[in-house]
Design a protein that fits this description.
Blueprint (H helix, E strand, L loop, with lengths): L4 H15 L16 H24 L4 H14 L1 H14 L1 H24 L5
Length: 122
């Protein structure tokens, strides 16, 4: 079965969310240990963008380019506050810093997948 790029993105998000429930998910880059809270934070971010994808599909009336542009705009808009929170979190605690980093990493992963899917074909 061949998927559209939008369907591929949807499958990617669902698979990544599912990975967050696997044993050992949420490995901390700082400590190298599994922390279930990290998996929860990542899963929540992925779920936000799964919802964004659903809204984008509805608003785009089946036009793929409109859909991906909406998603890209949200990939820029939503993490803006998290970037600001990162500086504050660094001053407060390592755990808060790690949570914000996980959120931003999840966004970068989604952005990378979108670029991979919509990369100009040679």
């Amino acid at each position: 079965m061949e998927y559209t790029k939008i369907e591929e993105l949807e499958v990617y998000l669902k698979e990544e969310i599912a990975k967050c429930t696997e044993p050992g998910a949420g490995m901390s880059a700082e400590t190298g240990k599994a922390d279930p809270m990290f998996a929860v934070v990542r899963s929540n971010v992925l779920d936000i963008f799964n919802t964004v994808l659903s809204v984008a599909k509805e608003l785009s009336d089946g036009e793929e380019e409109k859909c991906v542009e909406f998603i890209r705009s949200k990939l820029d808009q939503i993490p803006e506050k998290w970037n600001g929170s990162l500086q504050q979190a660094r001053m407060e605690s390592d755990i808060k810093t790690a949570h914000v980093r996980i959120k931003l990493e999840a966004v970068r992963d989604i952005q990378q997948k979108i670029e991979e899917l919509w990369e100009p074909q040679a």
